[in-house]
Amino acid sequence: MTLKEFQDDIRAGIPDVLPAPKPYDAAINHAPKRKDILTPEEKKLAIKNALRYFPAKHHRELAAEFADELKRYGRIYMYRLRPDYEMYARPIDEYPARSRQAAAIMLMINNNLDKAVAQHPHELITYGGNGAVFQNWAQYRLAMKYLSEMTDEQTLVMYSGHPMGLFPSHKDAPRVIVTNGMMIPNYSKQDDWERYNAMGVTQYGQMTAGSYMYIGPQGIVHGTTITVLNAARKQLQKRGGGEIPGMLFVSSGLGGMSGAQPKAGVISGVVSVIAEINPKAVHTRHSQGWVDEVHTSLDELIPRIRKAREQKEAVSLAYQGNIVDLWERLAAEGIDVDLGSDQTSLHNPWAGGYYPAGLTYEESNRMMAEQPEEFHRRVQESLRRQVAAINKLTAKGMYFFDYGNAFLLEASRAGADCMAPDGKRFRYPSYVQDIMGPMFFDYGFGPFRWVCTSGRPEDLATTDRIALEVMREIRKTAPKEIQGQLDDNILWISKAGENKLVVGSQARILYADAEGRTKIALAMNEAIARGEISAPVVLGRDHHDVSGTDSPYRETSNIYDGSSYTADMAVQNVIGDSFRGATWVSLHNGGGVGWGEVVNGGFGMVIDGSDDSRRHIEEMLLWDVNNGIARRSWARNEGAMFAIKREMERTPGLKVTLPNIADDTVVEEALKNL
């Protein structure tokens, strides 16, 4: 397809003449069939809802086709409308647009749907089994058409994948406002998602999928590296010494973000063994170089693990099989596992997020659609077995941490032995409780991201150099409380190029605080103005950050004042970003730990070397981080109290309410008198 044909296709939106039906491409990794949950009346409504995108002359043909899709797949994806052009992040100048900012957003959307990036690209799902960019291909086409037409004085409103339309605004307003899955609170159960998504009225945006800000597994490699490194350091400290090389890390998941684990393990210097039951996911990560070796037999894998440990290799081994079988074999063999976790998508346990032991991948996919109750029973049985094996290994000294994917939550619901003696807490901490929260989020460090819209590796290398220079300069006068974090991040960015982290767009992630993010962004903006970077840069972050997410089982699991079940922070974050210069903002129900379990918000900001970009950087990034630090400080988190006091000293106009700390004995004495 020529560039002109590509641009014309985008401008056309939903074509007046229907394209021919497309064959089902078996070579692509597809979403599993969703269970049949709609009543006959609801199925009728789902088809009527889908037909809203088309004139009446097409309804008879499409009604039959959409009914067939609903029966075959449990959803109406409108496969026929999938574009013929290859889906990837093209250079920004190739997109037809009246607004440079809109062109950058089109680039980010295409990156989220790139088959090298997305988990189920033809179902418009980026990661996590159900994290969708759009519900169907008509929504994609209409959104891209609107983006090609909009000016810098319009805003596109997106309702759970549906482009509601372009509305007049102004140049400092967001170009796009996204909401995903924002349900009335009593309608956020798992089956509610199944039902209302099947009817075509809502979707699960995960975090960065429905926010157009996913950058492939690199997005979580840095956070996973930090987690594995510091988990290893905790183990060595507990043992009174030793070294990281030769330590064994075991986990599961090579799909979307979980695919980062083997790369993070190698960067950390450990032997990592990651189980994955989906052969296509294994092949993808191996072909991309994110997994060193693939093993399909435990009889071959176990001796390989022993050899790797003895020789202290930094190597990643994929086990193409069920994680339960791996854990049980490790426990039976008496292998000392140093670090353990799990990254199956247990926020989505009944629709492809977790595969039970004793069934093949194909058998599980059939059972979840045709025998959902039996599949439910098998999943819970496997979770009990998995936890039992993990408990045997932790009794021998393994440090196990929940990776915030609802593993312990779903295991507890299955009756697994994963609760602490008091019956109120989990036996094992989340990685946020032990590592990410107190060491990083409380001090304002989180997953800052940027994407070079030129698509040129040379521009990415320039941004890496700028970030490294800024971080080294900050390190010279940094207080001791954050020197360790800066050192780890300086090492990360200095090695980023050689670690070959790019999948899809020319993007980078770097954990930084508000000072680091602002100074890096300002330096990049100046470099664009000077022509050292050839095109605009998109700034963003993971929602899994200091301020972006309210999630009691993950991001806010180290907040102990009772407010971890509130969602003020995420909502305030999005509102504040929207009037301080974000190019687009997003607010989602669900993400990471599950539908109804979390509210999260994100942003994207296009910088182009202008004074407006400088102003937006200075106004928005300070708020985006310090909103979360202030909330964490009010929860009496020691690191956050230090960080917000330091920020108030250097930022005129910032005045945050600080907590007074009550003495436990005073409170306990008062309670005795009741």
TrEMBL record:
Membrane-traversing stretches: none
Positions that bind NAD(+): G128, G129, Q206, E276, Y403, G592
Keywords: Cytoplasm, Histidine metabolism, Lyase, NAD
Localization: Cytoplasm
EC number(s) per entry: 4.2.1.49
One Pfam family cited in the UniProt record for this chain: Urocanase_C
Domain Urocanase C-terminal: residue ranges: 440-645
Reported cofactor(s): NAD(+)
Pathway named in the protein's UniProt entry: Amino-acid degradation; L-histidine degradation into L-glutamate; N-formimidoyl-L-glutamate from L-histidine: step 2/3
Top-level taxon of origin: Bacteria
Similarity-based family: Belongs to the urocanase family.
Name under which the protein is recorded: Urocanate hydratase
Gene: hutU
